[in-house]
Fold each of these.
Amino acid sequence: MKKLFALWIAILIVVTVSIPVAVAQTESPRLIDQADLLQAQEEQAFLTKLDQASEKYQVDFVIVTVDTMGEDVSVDEFAELVYEEGDYGFNETKDGVLLLVAMEEREWHILTNGLGKTAITDSEAESIGDAFSSYLSDQDYVNGFNVFFEECEYQINGEINGFPFPLGRNLLIALVIGFVLAFIVTGIWKSQLKSVRSQKNATVYTKQGSMNITTANDFYLYSTVTRKAKPQKSSSSGGSSGGSSRGGASGSF
Amino acid sequence: MPALQQYKCPCCDGAIEFDTQAQKMACPYCGTEFEMETLLAYDQELNSATADHMSWDVQAGCNWQEGETEGLRVYSCQSCGGEIVGDETLGATSCPFCGNPVVMMGQFAGALKPDYVIPFQLDKKQAKEALQKHYMGKRLLPKAFKNQNHIDEVKGVYVPFWLFDADADAHIRYKGTRVRMWSDSRYDYTETSFFNITRAGGIGFEKVPVDGSTKMDDALMESIEPFDFSQAVDFQTAYLAGFFADKYDVDSQMSVERANERIRQSTADAFATTVNGYTTVTPVSTNIALQNGVAKYALYPVWLLTTNWKGQKFTFAMNGQTGKFVGDLPLDKGAYRKWLFGIAGIASAIAFAATYLFWLL
């Protein structure tokens, strides 16, 4: 843990030196691009976006990239450490959401805490991860982070202000239901018009009680067993740390 | 030379016919009814007398070109002397001039004599009523077809059927699977067990009918099945009086394959029902050997109704015994579209409202 802490300090120093933005020194920046995935301009734009959203919703939006996490540490543990050491999170409940990307390990983790967790369930975090990880694989980091940010903002905004009524989607669903139903009903009516059909069998002409079975043999041949890994439960690991509810999802790219 | 048979009322000498309500021969003029047994004796008497009629002239005039009369038979009516022209399978009809019912005796003589006949139980009126009922409750039937429809022809026809008996010996092998599923903390397991299943044995079928007339659509005739054979009686030509009848023109050899096809399917189905307790069952090999008995020749009662609408011919058939009525009907395309979009619109609106309510909750 000490080693990790040292690493964290190193990151922080690098960052604070390289980006002298108007952020209070005591406060950790919401974008730490240690792996240097973004250009300076993009970084600046992102940071502004993250800051504005964080202030607006009173929920921290944080993106951290590192070259490597070091040995003996899992991506969720590392993300948790960053969240705690960076002292992220608004209010007492430490409301926030953090994306950690580790380049050497090619792993990502979304950490949700407090209101962040309420707004973004673990399965939602997983689907957000699915949405952006392909961008990371293509080294399109700007769009990947944008997807992450927009999806998180949508969920958190929905949690606070209520979700907008998904008009287009619901209209489409309603039309599909309507037409499927209409095709079934009119299909039944249409089939009433047709009554001339060949008989398939001669079952009505079976001689009563004429069926006798002389051989009835069932024997076991072999079995095959297949196993499928259960969908991994997202690492909701925060149990010990001060009762703050913590959740999230991990994956690789 | 074919000879005609008319049944004359011993009471008033009118031409008598079979009455479906009374299940007897009845005279439409004086109302007298006669038992079929009486007619059987009467029938035999008349058959023995047919030699006298053999000399009756047949009006195959010299004007016919050679080959033109092939497939045609010309009879002369015993009542009015009018010429009745029919095809070679015509067995009973009514005289186009005097309307008296006639039976072509030669069509059912000797080896051509049917073994059984199921007499008509339902009459023309009931056939017409059944057609009206057939139209009912069908939303996509064009209204004009229902309302302005004139039935061109309603005729009671004794259709020739071959009846086949068969004993099937089956030996069928199936592959069956049973699936068991369980889980531990990390994996879901699926165990599929495979079984070899063998069933062998026999099953019998009797009186499987096959339409023996090329004039009748096979699918139409199969659609009005089944006929209740327990009501069949030994054939007497008297039953044909007042109806149309055809003799067979497809022999039993040609018909037996159709019967066997259906028997094989039924045998496979019957044995498949004895295989229980598996998740899936697939037949691997099916051996069904059929032992066909003697084919019987029977006449079954069918009401045929025909109509034309927009240049298309529609044929309906009613089982003259059970009243089962079939016949394809035209589709009202306009109504179909109207209903399709109407239902889709309403159902979509309800579904949309439901999603909105769901969102509010």
Note: The first strand of chain B starts at residue 4 and ends at 5.
Amino acid sequence: MSAATGQTVPQVQQGKVLVVGAGGLGSPAALALALTGVGGIGVVDPDAVELSNLQRQILHFTSDLGKPKVTSACEKLGRVAPQLQVTLYHTRLEAGNVAQLFRPYDFIIDGTDSVETKFLVNDGAVLMGKPFCYAGIVQFQGQLLTVVPRQSACLRCLFPTPPDPAEIPTCQESGILGSLAGSIGFLQAQAALEYLQGNVTFLADRLLTYDAHALRWRFVPVRRNLRCPLCGLSPTITDLHALTSRWTDQCTARA
Amino acid sequence: MAVHVRVPTPLRRFTGGAEEVIAVGATIRAVVEDLEKNHPGIKERICDEEGKVRRFVNIFVNGDDIRFLNNLDTPVKDGDEVSIVPAIAGG
């Protein structure tokens, strides 16, 4: 394993990973990928660094306040891995740009912070056949799952329709433990590295949940839903036009 | 039937902070009612106004999603582990 030996294997050196969201999850994920020596990293984020981000978004420092997160991320990644090709997308992920953004990449990391965007990542990735790692964090609880399109369960196999954002707790209401973001984000990077090396079942069909307060990791087995509206036998979602993405910026609204 | 219910962080304010509670009932529906009896307010977070499991919540019995079993009528037996897993969207 390259990350363990310090030697980067060719599959990883040639791999390109897109990190959507340069926040609590995307920061540690991108950092780990850069340190491991992937072939290229893309970072998508529309926001600027705010003070309330710094407690968990480890690519951003106080000197970066007000700077686009993608710029701040690029500077840090360039310092730890000067040879790394980092591509910045200072934009929101939306139905209209998903295909263009995802196309060059071998694996996607979902570091987004809103339910709509998480489903947009899921739908875009499954429709394009791009593997990705979903994760969500709030308070002391995190969970993650690798989705290999049409081979393993996707987010809609678990939750066929996206919940109303008002129904689920947001980081704005509840906060996020800083170390939780690191724990889950670093594992997302590992999921990408495992996939690039051919371990496609790593974190697929099993949702890993972490309770950072009780220090308990658990697997919940999940499986493809043959009635899934996206990857089931008779899909009803066949393009992204029905989707809209509001990047609600729930985590910074109270800064 | 006494089952072990794994309570996710957002619902622990109803269980006095407990991450696992015991509930009794022969089906998931009865287990949810028993949870409500001992931890008032929790049912509303699990089920909607029509009594169906909310779309952002999944319930697993020993790792199996009740949507692929018999939903709220899924039977449970002594010692089963019931996990409530909500969607989490923060990042």
Note: Residues 153 and 223 of chain A are 5 Å apart (CA to CA).
Amino acid sequence: MNRADADATPRGWKRFFRRGPWENAATVLIAAGVVMLMQPYFMVLYTFSFAVILTGTVGFVVVSHFPE
Amino acid sequence: MASRMPSKVPGEDERQPYKDTFAIAPRNPRNRPGSIETGEPRHAAAGVRGLSDRAIVRLFVAPTILILLAINIFPLLWTIYLSFTNYRANRPNAEVKWVGLRNYERILNKEDIWEYLQATAHFLCWTMILQIVIGFGLALLLNRRFGGHSFWTTVILLPMMLSPAVVGVFWTYLFQPQTGIFSYIVNVFADVGPLDMIGSVALAPWAIVMVDTWMWAPYVMLICLAGLRSIPDYVYEAAEVDGASAWRRFWSITVPMVLPFLMLAVLFRAIENFKMFDMVVELTSGGPGSTTELASINLKREAFEKWRTGYSSAFAVILFVTVFGAANVYVKAMNAVKRR
């Protein structure tokens, strides 16, 4: 690996806080929350649905400001 | 005389091709630079009142920001605050108590609200599926440019132009089991007797799906038609030269190129249908029982019939966060489709 490649590779916290995987995680949370809110099978899922949607939505807004 | 005063500097026309357009009056030292008389560019209004360009931009944007804050952001923040209180709008002088998360807790443990959300999900899913299929199908038909296609486009678009309340009222008449034309037409094909579409627990959820599809499939059709017309003919011609079948052309050219348009239409319709109120209230009023009581209908009952403002604010916040989150995910998916 030459020096330019080494500089381009994100290291440390920058490597950890990349937008892609975090945005995907937030998306999965929101989708799961919406399904939990409207599914007709388990009341307990409905009860916790809003917490999941809220976590996902706030998370999505935050992680969409992370670097690529 | 004429020889001592040349009328034109050599090469002037080449340097200022639009001179005649801007230079209304001859150059005069008293004309300020950048005025319309000289035609010279300058920063708009700079120096007129000692304001920079940036300050002028802020000045123009400020009213919009203020209006946005007043009619969008402030009510949203106020609703979030009210959702943590026991406030009742019909008792403005009563003491407002902070109840914390109790409103949310009650909503998220109440089976009735869960059922209203299921009714909303049923309505949303089926209207979206039917509107996509019918809207896209109509767009494919109208894209063939047959004789009178403009007339038929207008006829198909008519339901979309009506008020949802009006649509709700006249479909109530069409759905009348004894005198309505809908029951009559169904009985022509199948002898099922008087068909009570809005009075039957089994049929009422399908009645609202049907009316919404009748009204809004043309909207999806219109957006799909715009997408179909944007596909250049040479793409199809190239595929034909390569020997692609009609089915292959449809799946490999038409669908991928119309998909961003279709997704946009679905986004608009899904947000609208999640908040659906007027048409369903006129058609069924949420009945029979609470079979067609959608989330927004119940929200209105809680807020303006039972006057439980804090409680209904919490419900409104839940619905808002759900739509906001789902729209974020959907827009992300739509952008991914556009980038392909």
Note: The two ends of chain B are 71 Å apart (CA to CA).
